[in-house]
Specification:
CATH superfamily: Thiamin diphosphate (ThDP)-binding fold, Pyr/PP domains
Distance between the termini: 45 Å
Shape: globular
Oligomer: single chain
Bound molecules: iron/sulfur cluster
Helix content: 25-40%
CATH architecture: 3-Layer(aba) Sandwich
Strand content: 15-25%
Strand order of the largest sheet: 2-1-3-4-6-5-9-7-8
Number of domains: 1
CATH topology: Rossmann fold
Order of helices and strands: HEEHEHHEHEHEHEHEHEHH
Radius of gyration: 21 Å
Number of strands: 9
Length: 317
Amino acid sequence: MLGLKTDWVLEPEPRDYALADYEGCQAKWCPGCGDHSVLNAVQRLCRDERLPPEQTVFVSGIGCSSRFPHYMKTYGFHGLHGRALPVASGIRARRPDLNIFVATGDGDCCSIGTAHWIHALRYNMKMVVMMFDNNIYGLTKKQTSPTTRRGRRTNTHPDGAFLSPMNPITVSLGVPNASFIAQTVDWNPPHLYATLREAFHHPGFAFVRVMQRCPHFTGDNFELFQTDPSKILLMTHPDGVPVDDALIRTFTTRVEHDPADRMNAFNHAMREDVLPIGLFYRDEEAEHYDSYTREGLDTTPAEKVEAMDKLLDLYCV
Ligand code: SF4
């Protein structure tokens, strides 16, 4: 399928799978944690897309959501804090035959992992990146994260966080060669699933910010949006995240947004009166760094020696 003459490319026979084929260990997140919802959506996506578990890998950093690989019966790499993306990029460079998903959080991605995040967006290597944003460090017990809202009392800012929070969508939109930037919420399974499915089919780096409930530490974070769906701005467009009649009925505040329009994407992403969901930006023509790293992947040892000899001959005197 990939056209590589190697003996390591897996090409399993297509077959149907059940959800049980993807279910790993029992998830140990708190009851009501939004991470459960994303896990369910991802397992359904894997089943529906008939992804062979032996050809699928989940990579994560550190944080509550980064426990994700343990709960998938696929390959997984639970890495170091903030370092999920370099690991995933390395896997992509050497194994273009694998389906790659990344689970990262607002602390993992937008603080210690920021440099990796920015350059991974620019490198645009094919993978689905789920950024679970609960606006807090949950695993280490309620410290201010880069996306914590002003005024929220945390263990590191008991009088309330006083810096304006980072907006991961506007930051991503500002990165040259970024190619897919979307936002969804964990408490609406149809929109969550449709967004992840769209991300999976994107040919490059698909960044999805999932607004994620953390009932343990920030229980009231998204209460307004859950109790009053008119506070959510549903972005619709034929080239965006597909929405069905049920979503149209649920989210009455809507706007037609063409994901090719980057400047308008900024305008929507910066709104604070509503929470926008949908696809902000998509560019399927952006360059892929993996098309470069793929060069020579199927070179045999004999061909490598021959190439090396030719190179050395250049310097013979
Ligand atoms: Fe989920 Fe928050 Fe519990 Fe972590 S602390 S598992 S984010 S509810």
